[in-house]
From TrEMBL, chains A, B:
SUPFAM superfamilies on file: lambda repressor-like DNA-binding domains, Periplasmic binding protein-like I
InterPro entries xref list: HTH_LacI (IPR000843), Lambda_DNA-bd_dom_sf (IPR010982), Peripla_BP/Lac1_sug-bd_dom (IPR001761), Peripla_BP_I (IPR028082)
Taxonomy of the source species: Bacteria, Pseudomonadati, Bacteroidota, Sphingobacteriia, Sphingobacteriales
Stated name of the protein: LacI family DNA-binding transcriptional regulator
Pfam families, per the entry: LacI, Peripla_BP_1
Ranges where the HTH lacI-type domain occurs: 5-59
Length: 332, 332
DNA sequence: CTGAAAGCGCTTACAG
DNA sequence: CTGAAAGCGCTTACAG
């Protein structure tokens, strides 16, 4: 393994001290223009780059951000990661990916790992089972900013970036109300998930307050397959054009669409459908599915910019809510 | 920022030397059982964990793998990353994600970054424009194993893990031949992509060798939207049940399905469709789309195990080909 | 069985 | 404007 160029090597070749070379490279005002030029030229030539481990040992700045998510097979998190990666490149940070598998024990281990690696900051969507948030707060006090996103804890005083679940649910409900609909079938995710706990009551509230006569049936599905089964069951007493399906997530949407296709129904003629989604799955169908957007990409941008402020020393905690927008397809 | 526990702290509390503590912690045979016990207990108590930067500075082992892909909005790469992440956890490695945006310049920069970070190894799917592979080989000689996957260079002597494109194309062609079909519309990706250059000729060869009377039309689409347009055009002189669409990728499949839905056609009654895919998109439709599987997950497992062998000292290069299997849906 | 010492490659107060 | 020196936290030959 060829040795990488070091400060020492440059210093020797130029008959300077290591300190001077180090300073020249960081454009320290003490160093003469001439020396700087010499040093930089040689550094360029031999492709010098500081050993990040040595730098970190001194400065405690790893230039690495961790992104922790419950699952990697999720379109929303992908856009988030993609978005963060984009910004990180620009600022010279790397992104380390961790998956908690929705297991608080693994999550805790990951946190420990992040601490030992002295990452510069953590972006995390917590598991639906996470109860204790002390470990997260502890990291914050140790100088590792923690930005919660999407799945965030209830605790007030921490940095949270979330989609406006209530707003998204409201947009979807209002869109449904524009149609003359008697029956709404709402498919929601796991009861334990914080997003379910916001989206379900808000959706019901908006819908039923505006029109108490609507026959609203809600179910909880923990997988696409389950959502498909439940939709099929609901469709057993189907009446043409009298029925709207609402899906609170891509996962439930995938299941519902499978059931609708299985029954040979067409949207929007035979049945209406609307979802809350990041947008990938809605665009696979024709007509495209109308959805209230929760954009992982936008959330990533917001989270990253909040992170940079924390790194720069902003100490107060802040909750940032990304408003949702309605993207019209032709499915309703 | 609270100070992390160090060897020094343990040594002081126990009135031992740092060397002894270090050895005790790694179960060195020289150290007495009694001392080991004392040290380990205290280490446990104060949650000692070695500073990875200090360790790396000495040992040059970062325990980090880099994964470099052209794009992060790609289901295949997600499964690959997910698969690698799973194994990495077990072995105590972290995964750093890089996206080249299919730009060889960015790719080169990433490579440089990996070298400076002294990552333990690199998994990379190169860009379709990558011409020079010397930089990759150089890393290998510097002791950083490089495992190419999916998009691999033509150069012989390097570690490559790929799906068997020829095999997948063959499986799809054979499946089409089972039906009595006159007309096949094949949608392929960018001409520059290595996978296109294998899948297209093989598919044509198998199909036409078996049945020269088949009217095979092939097109290249660089996006879903383009694939949709091209499919719509092909469908303009559509005759019921006389037509099979073959899509070489998820991207083209998404476009083709959009066109088929737009025309109000049903699979397989009105039109047959078959693809090469990782499996996510085919399963969104009913009937599910028949596809020759190229599994990012399986590829990840193979790549990781090859990586561990390289780390362990295996120096010869090896090309591993993952065979494809046909997953039957009902779309053909 | 244990310890003193050198060194990994850098940064930065201190001195001149 | 430049340099000698200490130190970040660890590992490991060397000595006893």
């Amino acid at each position: 393994m060829r040795q990488n160029p070091t400060l020492k090597k440059i210093a020797e070749k130029l008959s300077l001290s290591i300190s001077t070379v180090s300073r020249a490279l960081k454009d320290h005002p003490d160093i003469s223009a001439e020396t700087k030029k010499k040093v930089n030229e040689l550094a360029e030539l031999i492709e010098y780059d500081p050993n990040p481990y040595a730098v970190n040992l001194r400065t405690h700045n790893s230039k690495e951000f961790a992104v922790v998510v419950p699952s990697l097979s999720n379109f929303f998190y992908h856009s988030f990661i993609s978005s963060i990666e984009e910004d990180a490149r620009i600022y010279g940070y790397s992104i380390i990916i961790y998956r908690s598998s929705n297991d608080p024990k693994i999550e805790l281990e990951i946190l420990k790992n992040c601490r030992h690696k002295r990452v510069s900051g953590i972006f995390i969507a917590i598991t639906s089972e996470t109860k204790e948030i002390e470990p997260f707060l502890k990291l914050d006090t140790q100088g590792i900013p923690v930005i919660f996103f999407d799945k965030v804890p209830a605790y007030e005083s921490c940095n949270k970036i979330c989609v406006n679940d209530a707003h998204a649910a409201t947009l979807a409900a209002l869109e449904i109300l524009k149609k003359d609909v008697k029956r709404v079938f709402g498919i929601f995710g796991d009861k334990n998930m914080s997003i379910t706990q916001v989206r379900l009551p808000k959706f019901s509230e908006v819908l039923l307050n505006a029109n108490p006569d609507i026959n609203l049936e809600t179910v909880h599905a923990t997988s696409s397959d389950e959502a498909e089964c439940m939709t099929l069951k609901a469709l057993s007493n189907y009446k043409k054009n009298d029925f709207v399906v609402f899906c609170m997530s891509d996962e439930t949407l995938a299941g519902a669409m499978k059931a609708i296709q299985r029954k040979g129904l067409k949207t929007p003629e035979d049945i209406g459908i609307i979802a809350i989604s990041d947008g990938m799955i809605p665009k696979l169908f024709y007509p495209e599915i109308t959805y209230a957007e929760t954009s992982g990409f936008k959330l990533g941008k917001l989270a990253f910019s909040r992170m940079m402020k924390c790194i720069a020393g902003s100490s107060f905690a802040q909750t940032i809510i990304d408003q949702s927008i309605l993207v019209k397809g032709g499915s309703l």
